[in-house]
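Entry 12.
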Amino acid sequence: MKRSAFFLTLLLTGSATAQLAIVEQRFKELDKNGDGLIAGEEMQAADYLSKLDLDGNGSLTLAEAKTAIARTEKAKTAATPGKTGIAEFDKLDKNGDGLLTRDELLQKRWMRFLDGNADGQVTLAEATEAMSRLRKKGLPEESTAPVTPASEDPSLKEAPEILKGSEHGVGHLVADLVLKDNHGQEQPLSQRLEQSQGIILAFFGATCPISGKLGAELARLEKDAAEQQVQMLLVCPVAVETAEDIQAFITKHGLTSPVIHDTDGQLAQALQATTTTEVFLLDAARTLIYRGAINDQYGLGYAKDKPNKTYLRDALAAMLRHESPEITATTAPGCALDHQEKTQVVQKNVTYHNQIARIMQANCVTCHRKDAIGPFSLETYDDVIENAGMIRKQVERGAMPPWFAAEPPTGQHSLWINDTSLSAQDKQDLLTWLAGGRPLGNPSDAPKPLHFPEEWAIGTPDAIVQLPKPISIKAEGTMPYQFVTATTSFDKDQWVQGYEIMPTDRAVVHHVIVQVHPKGSDVKDRGEGTEGYWAAYVPGNSAHIWPEGFAKKLPAGSIVSFQIHYTPNGRKTEDQLRMGLVFAKEPPRYLVHTAAVAHTRLNIPAGEGHHIEVKEQTVPRDMNVMAYMAHMHVRGKAFKFEVTPPGGGTPEVLLDIPRYDFNWQLRYDYAQPRFLARGSKVKITAVFDNSESNPANPDPTKNVRWGPQTQDEMMIGYFEYYTSSGADVAVQ
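Predicted 3D structure (C-alpha cells):
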C-alpha cells in the first residue's frame, strides 16, 4: 500500500507530548511484571532496548527511555533540517518551500487525496487533515511512537495470535447478508451458498503490501476451494481504493472470484473484520467456522520462505470432514480497519436452530452424545429440553463446560488454546433461551451435523500399547489406584508426535497417568508422579497431538506403566485400556518433556477448611512452557502457578485455578509458549478443604499427608515444555 506508507509517516510525526505518551504505553507493555523497570528477560524483547540504556547497567527506567528517545529525535531533527521539521514531509519537499506539488509527490494520484482546497499544492496541515479524514473511512490507524527499524523492534513483527473463537463469533450463525459484487449481481449469502459446501470471504486491500504478498496464495486457495465446491468472495473494505486499484490487484494475481467493494463498511462491520488480510470461512448452513489469518507466512515486519501454520487450509479441511477445526480464530496481521459502530454477527432472536444447537455443538456434544463419556446426549432439541434443568444449573454455577482457570483481565483474550469456557454472549443466549419459551425456530437455520470418529480421534495409530490383561472393577465403593506395566517391543527409539488413551469402559475410568521407564529399570520406584508424566488421561481430554516438528521420545524396549484411578458406578465390569501412538514422520526439531514441582511433605490439619501449602523451585534451564496441569485429590480447593524472574522482582501469576475440581484434572495449553529463564523461581500454591463442609472429604477428623490413594493427598504442578532436539536432555 504505497500511499499508506506515506500516510504512516505523517502519523508518526505527532507532538513531543503525544510521542512521550506512546513511549509510556510501550514501556508498560514491555514491563511485564509491572515493577517500573525493564530488566532481565524483559530487556531481551528488543535489540533497541540496550541502546536506550544510557547508564549501561543492563536495565531501563521510564525516565531513562524518555531521555534517550528525546536525544535521538533531537539529533534526527538537527541532521535533517527543513521548512516543517517533519523529516518525511521535507524529504518530498524538494525545493524546501513547505509545499508539495504534483511533481514532488511520488504518485501523482496522491494529489487528489491531499490537496484539500484543490489549488495544486499541499501544505503539511492539508496532508495531516486528509489523513484524518481517510482514516475515518477505514484506513489503518497507526501508532505515533518514535520510528524504530522493524529488525530491531519485535513489536513491529506482528504474527498471527490464536484467539478463542467463541468470543469472536465463531460457531454462530452469520446473518443472511445481501451482497452486491462487481458483476452487478446482488444476492443474499443463503442464495450464494446453494449447491455449495461453504464460502470463503477473503478481505484484501488493493494497495496493502501484505495483501499483495498473500495474493498468490489467494489464487491457489480460490482454485483448490472451487475443486471442493467451496466458493470465494473477495472483499475490499477500503472505501477510497479505486476501481482501477482493485482491478489491478485482481489482474496481477489472476483472481477470478466475484469482488465486493464494501464502500460503506457494512459488511466489515457486520463481521467485525479487523484488517485487510482477514478471512472468514462459512459452511453451507452459514455457520462461521473460522476467522483470522490465511497462514503465518507474512506479518507486520517479517516474511518467511513458507508458512509454518496454514490456518485457513486446516479449517477448510476440517469443515469438509464435518469436524471442528483445532484453531478457529486468530488475529490477521495486515492494514488495520476502523469501525465506528459495533454490529454483532450473531442473530438477535435466539432459537434452537439458529443458535442453541450451535452452542451445543461447539461446547457440549463432544462428550454429551451417544456412546461418549457424558451421562446423557445433547444432540437434539428433545435432548436439550429433557435435561434443561441440569444444563441451567451447571452453566450458572460455572461447572459446565469444564474449565477452571481464572478469567483473563478485561480487554485481554484467553492465553489458552483449549479454553472450553462459554463466551459471555453464548452463556447469556443459552440461559435466556432456557428461561424463556425455548423456541425451536426455522429448521432451515439448523447447523450441519458434526461427524465424530468411530474409534480413534487421532486416526489409525501407528502402534498400540495395551494392558496385558483386563482389570476387574467392582460395582460399589472405591478402589485403590491400579498400577500396571506393559513392555514395548520396539527395537529402536521412536519419536511420538501424539497419543490417545482409550479405556474399554470409559464410564469407570477417572484418570490415568502414564510413565515411560528405560529397558530393564525397576518400575516399582516410580515416584508417584513426582518426576513428571509421559502421557495422561482425564475426562474429556484423552488425546493430544503436538505440532509438526515436536515429539516425545519412546526409547527402544522401554516399559510403559499405567497408574489408573477407577471409579465404580453401580455395576461390575472390566477394563483393558489401550494407548494409541502416532509417530513423527521424521526426527523432531524439538523434544517435549514434562517436569513436576511436587510438595510431598503435606500436613493438612483435621477440620481445616482453607489450608494453604506452598512449594518453590528454581528453574534449572531456559525452557519454553507449552502447558500446565495441577494434580490434587478430593480435598483440593484451589491451585496457582507463579514465577519470579532471576534475581528477584515481582512474582507473576502463570495460571490461577480458583476452583480446582478433582473430577476434571485438565491440561491448560498455551496458545503461544511462555518462556521461563534459567534461574527463575516457580512457586505452586495449593488450598485444601479438609473440613466437614467438603462433601467429598473421606474423613475430616484426620490429619492428611502425602499418599497415592484418594483418601490421601497430593500436590503436584506439571510443566510441559520443549527443548531443541540438539540439547543434551534426559527423557522424562
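Annotation: The chain has a mean pLDDT of 84. The first strand starts at residue 100 and ends at 101.
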